[in-house]
Amino acid sequence: MTPAVLVLAGPVARDEAAGLCGKVRALLEDTRAGVVVCDVGGLGPPGLGTVDLLARLQLAARRAGGRIRLRAPDPALSGLLDLVGLPFEVERQPEQRKPAPGVEEAVESGDPAL
């Protein structure tokens, strides 16, 4: 099943949190995917208000039998969530492949053979 996506844009006021928690519960019920992806790329600079909002959304999702997964979190937000001890699942971006260990891309003519 494809999870629903909830886009969080701009600073979210504390009084908007209850409505967003309701949206998370409704999305979990409608899709039955067990996961709601929260696109947090547009939230702006992270702060404790953002941490509070995400904690509330995760709690609402857990109470509804699901969870949330973050999409496009700012590295500072990820660090702040780690600092306060709130683990969140994060969607991974495709990684650039690295060469296998021990494989050189180029060899200098004066390098000794291994």
UniProtKB/TrEMBL annotation:
**Where does the record place the region Disordered?**
91-114
Q: Could you list the residue ranges forming a coiled coil in this record?
A: none
Q: Which domain of life is it from?
A: Bacteria
Pfam families given in the database record: STAS_2 (PF13466)
Which InterPro entries would you find in this protein's record?
MlaB-like_STAS, STAS_dom_sf
Domain MlaB-like STAS, residue spans = 6-86
Q: What is this protein called?
A: MlaB-like STAS domain-containing protein
Q: Which organism is it from?
A: Streptomyces thermogriseus
Lineage runs:
Bacteria, Bacillati, Actinomycetota, Actinomycetes, Kitasatosporales
